Amino acid sequence: MASAHGAAASPALSPAASTAMAAIMDSSKPLDTAAFDAMCDAMESPGSPAGTTAREVLEAFRQHPDAWRRVDGILDRCRSDLARVVAAGVLEDAIMLRWETLGRPEQESVRNFISGKIIKLSSDPAEAKREEVFLTKLDVLLVGVLKQDWPHRWPSFIDEMNSSSRAMGEGVCANNMRILRLLSEEVFDLGSGVVADLTSDRRQKLQASLSSELKKIFNLIAFVAASSTSVGTLTETLRALQKYLSWVPASLVLETDLVATLTAKFLPAPAFRTITLDCLTEVVGAEGSEDARWAPRIMEMFGGVMATMARVIPPGADIPGTVRSAKARGSQAEPILVHRLTLFLSGIFRRHLRCLEGSEALRPMVLQGLAYLLGAIRVDDKDLCKLVAEFWRDFSRDLFDTAAAAVSRAGGPSAALAAFTAATGGADAAKGASADAALHGAMAAHPRVMNYSRLLSELRLVGTELMPKPEEVLVEKDASGDVVRSFTRDTDALALYDVMREMMVYLTHLDPADTDGIIVAKLSRQVDGSEWSWERLNALCWAAGSVSGTMSEEHEKRFLITVIRDLLHLVTLRPGKNNKAVVASNIMYVVGQYPRFLSSHWKFLKTVVYKLFEFMHERHEGVQDMACDTFLKLAQRCSSCFVALQPRESRTFVEELVSNVDTIIADLEPHQVQAFFEAAGCMVAAHPNMSTQESLTDALLRLPREALDAHVARAASSLDSLRSADATRDLSRIFANYERVARAVGRGFSRHAASVFLTVLSLYRTYTGFVSAGAATMGTMAVTMADGAAIQRVRRAILGFLRAFVRNNRDKAVLMEHFMPHLVKASGRADVCMVESFAGEPPLARLPEVLDVFRAAALTLKTDGTAVLSSIVPRLLRPAVELISANYDDHPDMRVALYRFTQTLSRHCAPALFAMAPADQKLYLDTLLWGIKHHNPFVAERAGLALRDFLGALAGSPGEHASAFFCAFAVTMVHDLLFVLTDRMHKAQFVVHVELLRGLFDVLANTTLIPRPIWDQASEPQAAGTTNSQYVCGRIASSLASAFPNLTREQVHRFVSGLADTSKPVAAYRTSVRDFLIESLSFNVSDSAALWRAEQAAKLASEHERKAAVPGLQKAAAQPALGMRPDAAAQAAGGDHASQLASMAVLDDMDDDDF
């Protein structure tokens, strides 16, 4: 590999490093491997002069374009592991980055060196074992060469693999199988992201080439399987086979004897059992395997597997106990076998259950296979439990769909679902009650459901015993056995809960009486003490809550009354703080899941609420938190019940509530008080009379208002009283309560807000003056000191209240006439106007919540606030940008607030942006372009979406202002977008960046929008007939050629031409950009997922729609509120998060109500 071609030492090296580097790269002499080893050894002392020099030299060597020429000597003769790591990395870079710059002889030299080294190592079993890691790295390098050269420059590769495997011994054969496996992974394993260094065109060609060689590869695998006696070789062969089975057509496998060989020869052998199951799992999941012509092969395979496994795991075996015992003695064989068997059974049942259950001979084996899965779900392994639970969910859904279609008059699921809606309390609940028994009876009598009735009952029992903790439960047992408030969020447990909850929903639809009976029977054993334990009670109650919405109203009433009655009985039967906390948390969780029942049964609802008030006085933080959260949930979901005059009541519940606020909240912590006030505000908002809403709001806020007035009165005598710790603490809490009420009540809060608005602004100005005075005397550190931090908390609380009020007041006229002038009115005194005081404050004292207040105003007023917003936006942007422009990291809260604000402006208030002066528009654009370069993904994403919406609105309003804007800034925007696309730091925003590029080139081609050239012909003369698109393409082609010298002129031209071609479909446009980024190596293997995210996003939308169609699948909190106004319902649900997740990889649908 050595050549006479030399290279100069890398620049900027120290003299010692430069001398060492020159010696290494001097190709006129053999490489001094001892000196190279010594240099690597010096890296173990990084602080020493020798270590510093070594690090400098090795880094320069790694980056040197001709370093690969010295790699053979290092790999052959150096003893240092680090030396070989460095050399292998250099060789990998040469293959990945510089392959096309090498001459053909040099490429063959590299290829032959790697191949020879692999054969030499793998031929000697002892050497191969000792150098296993190095050999694997060489295999990876060879696959890298294949991705560059095969098949066009190395057409004989597969034939060479065949001949060497047959002629050179077991070691070479085993390693060849490893290489074939790695090649399949690189070319076809899209899910792992390893194909990020392949363009779509190159990947397709490699896939076609590998597919065309499948017969040779399978013949080789069959030869090895039949003739080899080495466990290692056969294992590698089966591992390679598994990778090919994951993508080959089912026909290619099932028309041969391969499956029979796997089942008869390898499955019975313990050494090959798990990998054989992996192979068979791929076969049953292969595309096309459901074809009826392959049914005999599938049934034969299943019978063979089950016959073998019956000897390994006898029917009726205690699978959880077997796994537990194996782990106790340190064995992993049994757990791995159970996991692989689970994968096989769940895979074959998902795709071929109808075929298998149609065979009378196989039916007992089907039931035995399902029994294995029923045992596997009880194994103490989170991953396995989730895997099996997902199968049981899908199995239950399949039975549900089958039965629903059968009972539908139209013969399809839609009519059955309509019947379910009625049966579970839909539009005609009365009819639903009578239809319930017939409907569920018909479903339970369906032949498929009856075949599995016993198994389904056992599965319901599993659900009641293993249900994980839902998000709403806020207590847990700590390490010492006490029940405490939980603060961590177990995402694995929540994911498993969602799966098992859906499973229980389908199972209950199939037979609600059985679910009812199991839960009630087990709960009675909790009461009588025969099965009492916290864990069992928790799982049982979580299961009871999970089936909300699956029964008819009458059935649900009987069920829930029984459950709550027994739980209340447990409160008295099981004294003690810990016991009471557990039972109380379960009562609150269960009732919170059944708002439909509670809204229809006032006495029960009232009893539950009074029980919650009782729990609010429990001296247990978790219980009090759950009580407040549950009260809030009921207030949101059953709000109309609390404002209606109920039978035999002298006044509405909300009137009684507001008159007893002081008693109810006496033992609550501040954050719990805030939850209470929000709940009460939800009730107030449900009242149909606006005047009554206003009166109730005044009554509800009597205590905070009195405390506020008291502080204001003391301040009238001495402003310094507002600096006291008591005052800052009290006022922070007061305005936090005001914020929650304002957010919940909405328009009905206006009268109370008007009564305190000027007082609030006066307090804000006073505290702002405190901040400025402190900064003037003590410098900016005054803001961070204890007194300054307390003052800032008050200001934040005031701004939070103002933001909530402005956002939730839907009366734009009232807002514009009575409130906005006080916030934005220009004045000679900077401290009077909130906008001006924001700019005049010390930079470190500026609060991002100011931007949130005006973002709320923009969301509420939209285009009605054009005149106001166009004047204040520049005055807010400048001080905010000034604060954060030093770098990309400081003041993250201000960055987030700024770019949320800009996205709202771009989406809802574009006319206000167009009305700004040109200099202010440039400031706005510069702010967005700077934002997309941020490393914080949230900031970069919001800035990108804001830019997209802004440019879209501008392009949709053609005129001189739009033409002038695009003429001035089109080239800058294209350059900045290409910068972030190619800088490796913004993969997550790939989709929106491509969308922006496409939109800009659309604009450039639009002669109506831009009727004149965007360049200055005097300074940049262009040929006659040059279009704006051509001009921009020329500019960026020149920039890209300079930035990426590794790309050919043809590659750059192809990419730039593709950018200008906006007529192609969006997916094709995105692919062309993705391919260029891969070619330029701007995206590496580890971060390729973002490039493919857009192709996966649609699956989320489909899943959301499916859940919405089945009663009970959506959680109670995600369902529309009962008797709540639409805007409050949306707010209570926290926005349409499912649709946000399903839109694109980025949060395209901004959560406007996320305050």
TrEMBL record:
Keywords noted in UniProt: mRNA transport, Nucleus, Protein transport, Transport
GO cellular component: cytoplasm; nucleus
Listed GO biological process terms: mRNA transport; protein export from nucleus; ribosomal large subunit export from nucleus; ribosomal small subunit export from nucleus
Residue span, Importin N-terminal domain: 54-120
Gene3D superfamilies cross-referenced by the UniProt entry: Leucine-rich Repeat Variant
Subcellular location: Nucleus
Keyword presence, Disulfide bond: no
GO molecular function, one term: small GTPase binding
Superkingdom: Eukaryota
Principal location class: nucleus
Pfam families named among the record's database cross-references: CRM1_C, CRM1_repeat_2, CRM1_repeat_3, IBN_N, Xpo1
Transmembrane segments: none
InterPro entries recorded: ARM-like, ARM-type_fold, Exp1_repeat_2, Exportin-1/Importin-b-like, Importin-beta_N, XPO1/5, XPO1_C_dom, XPO1_repeat_3
Similarity comment text for this entry: Belongs to the exportin family.
Name under which the protein is recorded: Exportin-1
